[in-house]
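Design review, sub-item: ligand-bound model
Attendees: FS, YL, KQ
YL presented the inputs for the pyridoxal-5'-phosphate complex:
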Amino acid sequence: MLHVNENYSKISPTYLFAEIAHRVAAHEAANPGTRTIRLGIGDVTEPLCPAVIEAMHRAVDDESRRETFRGYGPEQGYAFLRERIAEADFAERGIAVSADEIFVSDGAKCDSGNIQELFSQDARVAVGDPVYPVYVDTNVMAGRGGIALMPCTKENGFVPSPGDFAAQGLDLVYLCYPNNPTGAVATKGQLQAWVDWANESGALVVFDAAYEAFIRTPGIPHSIYECEGARKCAVELRSFSKTAGFTGARCGYTVVPDEVFARDSSGAKVPLKPMWARRQTTKFNGASYIAQRGAEAVYSPEGREQTKATVDFYLENARLVREAFAAMGYECFGGVDSPYVWVDVKRPSWDFFDLLLSRAGVVTTPGAGFGAAGEGFARISAFNSRENVLEAVERIKKAL
Ligand code: PLP
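KQ shared the predicted structure:
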C-alpha cells in the first residue's frame, strides 16, 4: 500500500497570504466601488527593462532558426551567463568566485528549498524568526524537526549572533540579508562572526542574497564571500527576480565554492559542489535559454543602468513609506537597503492589518505571519507604482 509522506502534515498551512486574500475580498465586497492598494505582496510591479527585453527577443529569434536553435542547455547554465556573473557580481567586487562554481537556476525559491537535500536527516537546522517560510517548510517536508528559531528583534538589530546559539550544536544555518521580511542588513562584522563560527563548528551557512541589488549603504556586504573563510563554509543564493524584475521570467543562481564541504558518517570531508552538480543534473534541466539571455543583458552597460534605475525607484517608494510612518511616530526599520519597511505597529499585527484595510483600504502584511517574533510588526512593501504609494501614504495618514 502506498503511504504518503506524513511530514507534509507537519508543515503549517499556507495561512498568511490566503488569510490576507480572504480579508481583502471581504472588505472589497462590503465596500463596492472603493479601490484597495496592495502594499503587502513581495512581487515586483515594474516591467522588464528594455535591454533585457531586446535580448530576450533576440533569443526568441535564435530559437526560431535551425542554425541558432538551442534545445536542452547545460543543466548548470550557459557559460555566457555564468562567466558574466562571475565577472560582474564577484570579480568586480574583488571576490573570487569562478564561473564553474555558479549554478544557474530558475530562481532562488527552488534552490533555497532544494539545498537541504544534500544533508543528513539529523542535520540541526536554524533559521531567523521572522523568516521567509521556504527554509523551514522544506526541512520539515524532508523530516527534520526541532528547527531552531533565532529571534530577530529590535534589540539585536534583527541580526542574530552565533554566540547565542552555539550551545545548540547547529549544523545548517539560513541567513538572509537584506532580509525578508524585516528589511535589515548585516554588517561585515556580523557576517564574519557567522563565518568564523561555521568554520570552527563544521556548520554550513546558506546565505540568501535575493535582495542584494537594494544595498546602497557603503560597507554593507553584497556577498558572504566578502568575509574571510566563507568559501569553506557558505553557499550563496542569488536571484534576478527583485534585481531585474524576473519574478515571471524566472532566473537565479547558487554559488557552491570548490572548498565548501560537509562530512560523511565516517567523518571524512565531502565537497558539496559535485553533490549539488549531481542533484541539479538529475532533477533539473536548466533555466530557459531565453531567460538566461535576458539575465546576461542585466550586466550590459544599458542593463545595469536600467535595472539600477528601477531598484532606485523602489527604494524611493520605501523612503516615502518609511518617512510617512516615522512622521506619525512609528518606529521603522529596513527600507534603506531593502524594498521592505518593517514597522513597529504598537499593537497586534492582525489588528493593525484590519485597521489599515478598513479605514484606508491599504493592504499590508502582518509581521506575525512570518513567525512569532514578527508579532507587533507590519511588513510594508515598496513594490508598487509611485502613484499608488503616494495615495496609500495619504490614506494611511488620515486613517491613523
Ligand atoms: N529568497 C527570499 C528571501 C525571497 O523573499 C524570495 C522571493 O520573494 C526568494 C528567495 C525567491 O526568489 P525567486 O523569485 O528567485 O524564486
